[in-house]
Amino acid sequence: MEKQEVLEKIAFNVIQGRVEAEDEGFDEGLEGRPAVTELTEEALTQGVEPKAIVSEGLTKAMDVVGEKFEEEEYLIPDMLASAECVGAAMDILIPHLLKAGVESKGKFIISTVAGDLHDIGKNIVAIMLKGGGYEVIDLGADVPTERIVEAVRQHQAAFLGLSALLTTTMRVMGEVIEKLKEEGLRNNVKVLIGGAPTSSEFAKEIGADSYCRDAFEAIDVLKTMAA
Amino acid sequence: MSKSYREGILVKPYERLNQDQVKWLHEASLSILADPGIWCYNERAAKLFKAHGAKIWEEESGSPCWRVRFPAGLIKQAVAKAPARVVLGARNPENRLLLDAEVPRVYFGSGSEANIWIETEMEDFVSVRQGDVTVRVPRFTELRGNTALLSRAARLCDTLEHLDFFIRPLNIQDPEITPENHDVNKFFASLNNTAKHVQAGLTKVESLKGVVRMAELIAGGSQALRENPVISFIACVFKSPLQIVDDTAEKVFAIVEAGLPLVISSSPQGGSSAPIQEAGMVAQINAEILAGITLTQLIREGAPVLYGSVPVRARLDDLHDLYGCPEFNQYNIDCVQLARCYKIPCYSTAGVGDAKVPGMQAAFEKLFTHLYMTMSGAQYIHYAFGLLDRTNSFCPVQAVLDNEQIGKIKHCLRQPKVGPSVVEDMLKTVKKVMSSSYRLYARHVRKAMHAGDVSRPYRFEAKGLEDKVLEKALDYMAKLEAGQAPCLDPSTVDQIFKETPGLLPGLRQSAKQDK
User: Fold this and answer.
1) B364 & B381 share domain
2) Same-domain pairing of A136 and A217
3) Which domain holds residue B427?
4) How many alpha carbons fall within 13 Å on the CB side of residue A118?
5) Are the beta carbons of B438 and A75 separated by less than 8 Å?
6) Each residue of B22-63: pLDDT tens digit?
7) Could you give the CA distance from residue B245 to residue B266 in angstroms, rounded to a whole number?
8) Is there a contact between B438 and A24 if contact means CB atoms under 8 Å apart?
């Protein structure tokens, strides 16, 4: 397979949302054919630059997926499938990119706060951010405040995403921010919050940097922060 | 001609009556037909019944009237001759309907012959308390039904995906319409604006010839029409309680002799023209329908006929019909079960709002009967689109709302997709997701989503703290109505106008020809 052809196939399969060969795509009849994981490996074997795989195969494809979503041809499951493809490809590519001196868009620690077991929204944000080129460190759900703060310190993360679904646990987000201040870490990390009971007003009240309604808004907010 | 039919929705029937109860009601109907029997105001029918073993005698009344008492055997034998399968044709063969009494596949259509068309427009109003706040509110206008509006109704109904057949929902009251040209104009306005099956009653039996000729020109000849009956008829031959109407009986003779499908429909009102109690209402309406079907089979064995049940209940404050009430469902579901027992396709009823305008009351009343009657497995549900004010008005935007509602009901009642291969697939998915980092099924929704197995949110929902259902439905209707009407080709229209006296010139539209 030519280099250009393999890149096009990666892009096609990202748009189709196929992580592995056994996955079905948006179109019929793709099951069994090589998908993003297999094609990324093949591209590396062929000597394609990891950076080219990211820019020509993954990023371009995600732009197309974004357009399809805007036009309502794609729905959330399609977006997530494509984002998972990018995430799977990035898992393979990151060691190669690091070797080549290419950095990710930043480390993003994400967590549902202590006392709250809800993680669907948090997982969707994590998948989308990983697909968007961030190095996502997912701490899981019901994570003690101390562990979150320790992870920020340990990974020197640029971003922290906190999620809560309950009015009883949303207050813990404020406790995390206070703890970051106590530990002298608050100025090093941008804190984004989300979850059904939260709001922009609540973000201001507890001193978070931003409230994000959903994964798409999180990506937009991060772009602004990066700029 | 291909043998494709509209899909409808195949359901697992909900049955209200047990087999003993079906038997008791059937026997009660036969008992009514034996004594007191029926009052028949049509001499031909009375004599035909007599010739086949009924006991008749002339009643003393102002009009010629025969009392007819039926032996049970006569009814049973005649009803057994009615076909279990009836095909209703359509201009577009893909719109044909196969009604099989032994298959609970449900089709939905419009109905009634309302005098009023309700036009809906949104208008902005300013808050009295806060001058900078405006709200959009629907305003309703009543228009008298006419041929232009009937044409518009047919065009709109042609675009509604869940509407399977078209029964004229509007009475035509143009100044030029007379009893003599009513039928040809009604049928032409319908047939020229929808490629779905067209059904209506006859105003005058003398019009039948012209209507049938029109249908033959459309279907491609006399034989072609009988193979693909693009039209069929409704005859309310009984005036409840238990009286056969003279001129409707003549229409039954004419339609059956013409070899076209016919609904034998009865619509008693529980509390006035029938008992209000379920057992009494159903025994009586069943008796009326069985006697009507018997008439069709004595005229011509094997005549295609539908068991037409439209039992309603009286309001007890003004004795008007009441549609959105529990008894309506009870009466109608019982009738569906009886029709199934006789192996005759059932023309049933659902979706009439007692409400006068679209809104929450209408939605409640319609959902209440749409859902239950679909569950009943009646083959042919009329009145299902746009009817308000107890069938006195037709509201097009309500028909659009009903289409959305029926779509959701159809989805709800789909056959379950549960089998060994599906279960195996699901088990694989569970394992796959549980071994992934996020344990999220969203990605695996896609196959079902794109196959149409996952229902969509309500089409007319608003995102904010407001109800925009009517506004959005009106926008959607405008898009539907912007499409091209499925008019007949110009040569057929020319020939119909040439051969059919009384057609209004304003109806002369035809399909645009490609240049």
Assistant:
1) yes
2) yes
3) 420-450
4) 14
5) no
6) 999 999 999 999 999 999 999 999 999 999 999 999 998 788
7) 12
8) no
Can you tell me the distance from the alpha carbon of B50 to that of B30, in angstroms, rounded to the nearest whole number? 17
Write out the residue range of the structural domain in which residue A142 sits. 107-226
Bridge partners for B243 per DSSP = B39, B239
Confidence of residue B173 (pLDDT cuts 50, 70, 90): very high
Q: What percent of chain B has pLDDT over 90?
A: 92
Give yes or no: residues B366 and B434 share one domain: no
Q: What is the 3-state secondary structure (H, E, C) of B383-431?
A: CCCCEEHHHCEECHHHHHHHHHHHHHHHHHCCCCCCCHHHHHHHHHHHH
Which CATH number characterizes residue B124's domain? 3.20.20.480
B462/chain A closest Cα distance in angstroms: 17
Q: What is the mean pLDDT of each run of 10 residues along chain A (227 residues)?
A: 90 94 87 95 94 89 89 88 90 87 88 91 88 90 96 96 93 97 96 94 97 90 81
CA A165, CA A158: separation in Å to the nearest integer?
24
Strand partners, B347: B308, B380
The continuous run of DSSP H or E covering B210 comes out as: helix B208-219
| B319 in contact with chain A, both atoms CB, cutoff 8 A | no
Is residue B514 over pLDDT 50?
no
What value does the mean pLDDT of chain B take? Answer: 96
Positive or negative torsion for Cα B83, B88, B249, B242: positive
Whole-complex ipTM: 0.78
Based on the number of CB atoms within 10 Å of its own CB, is B341 exposed (0-12), middle (13-18) or buried (19 or more)? Answer: middle
| Mean pLDDT calculated for residue range B10-19 | 97
Q: How far apart are CA B81 and CA B61, in angstroms?
A: 34
Count: domains in chain A: 2
Q: In the structure encoding, which two tokens stand for residue B116, read together?
A: 């009023």
SS3 call for B167: strand
Longest Cα–Cα distance in chain B: 88
**A interface toward B at CB cutoff 8 Å?**
17, 24, 26, 75-78, 80-81, 84, 120, 123-124, 126-127, 138
Give the total number of structural domains in chain B.
2
Q: Which of A51, A70, A99 is the last residue of a domain?
A: A99
Name the closest residue on chain A to residue B456, using Cα atoms. A75
**B446/A138 CB distance under 8 A:** no
Are B443 and A138 within 8 A, CB to CB? no
Tell me, yes or no, if B139 comes closer than 8 A to chain A by beta carbon: no
**CB-CB: which of B438, B439, B446 is closest to A81?**
B446
Could you give the CA distance from residue B212 to residue B368 in angstroms, rounded to a whole number? 37
B438 has a chain A CB within 8 A of its CB:
yes
Closest alpha carbon within chain B to A18: B443
What are the backbone dihedrals phi and psi of residue B345, each rounded to the nearest 5 degrees, phi first?
-60, 145
DSSP readout, chain A?
--HHHHHHHHHHHHHHT-SSTT---SSSS-TTS--HHHHHHHHHHTT--HHHIIIIIIIHHHHHHHHHHHTTSS-HHHHHHHHHHHHHHHHHHHHHHHHTT---S-EEEEEEETT----HHHHHHHHHHHHTT-EEEEEEEEE-HHHHHHHHHHHT-SEEEEE--STTTHHHHHHHHHHHHHTT-GGG-EEEEESTT--HHHHHHHT-SEE-SSHHHHHHHHHHHH-
Q: What average pLDDT does this structure show over B277-297? A: 98
Across the A:B interface, residue pairs with CB atoms under 8 Å apart total 33
Asked whether B29 and B266 are in contact (CB, 8 A), the reply is no
Q: Are strands B262-266 and B231-235 parallel, antiparallel or unpaired?
A: parallel
Interface test with A, best of B426, B444, B446, B449 (most A CBs within 10 A): B446
The alpha carbon dihedral of B21, B26, B14, B240 has a sign of negative
Q: Is residue B507 part of a domain?
A: no
Nearest Cα of chain A lies from the Cα of B443 at a distance, in angstroms, of 5
Contact B268, B64 (CB under 8 A): no
